[in-house]
Amino acid sequence: MIKNFKRRVLGVQAAFMVGMFSQEATAQSNFGTIARNITESIEEVPGMITGLAYMIGLLMGVLGILKLKDHVENPTQTPLKDGAVRLAAGGALFALPIVFESMQTTIGSTTDLVSPATVNKVEFNVQ
Fold first, then answer.
1. pLDDT digits (tens, 9 = 90+) for 58-90
2. What is the number of domains present in the chain?
3. Is residue 112 scored above 70 in pLDDT?
4. CB 120 within 8 A of CB 73
5. Which segments of the chain does DSSP mark as H helices, in order?
6. Minimal CA–CA distance to 86: which of 66, 104, 100, 72?
7. In a domain, 123, yes or no
8. Which domain holds residue 78?
9. Percentage of the chain surpassing pLDDT 90?
10. What long-range pairs does 58-64 form, CB within 8 A, spacing at least 24?
11. What pLDDT is attached to residue 117?
């Protein structure tokens, strides 16, 4: 089983190396293209995090209310802190996108957070 796995890994590595060193891959892939592709692919991540924070925050709030209900019905079995912790976590997750937006507004509203350095002129004052 291990020998078979090693053969598969070697096959994947060989295919990767052939793809990396092929003429077409090196002609069309340079560092600028790779950086641009990475930048374009992560543009939607904040929106996804916002949606997940809202959904999980609402879920945690509902679970917190259910735990508080369980505490009211049977205080010896369910401590009050279980419901309170879930409510606090849900509130924090629900407020996360608002806090993120206010931090972004405070720091700056430009979309270009990092700009590349440019070299205009190089002088060596050697005499």
1. 999 999 999 999 999 999 999 999 999 999 999
2. 1
3. no
4. no
5. 2-21, 23-28, 31-41, 45-73, 80-107
6. 66
7. no
8. 43-107
9. 31
10. 58/90, 58/94, 59/90, 60/86, 60/87, 60/89, 60/90, 60/93, 61/86, 61/87, 61/90, 61/91, 61/94, 62/90, 63/90, 64/88, 64/89, 64/90
11. 56
Identity (one letter) of the amino acid at 82? D
- 112 part of a folded domain: no
Amino acid (1-letter code) at residue 2? I
Q: Scan for tokens 């995090």, then name that residue.
A: 49
Q: How far apart are CA 58 and CA 36, in angstroms?
A: 35
Tokens 């890994």 sit at which residue?
A: 9
Q: What are the pLDDT digits (tens) for 33-48?
A: 777 777 787 878 888 8
Instruction: Tell me the residue type at 112.
Output: D
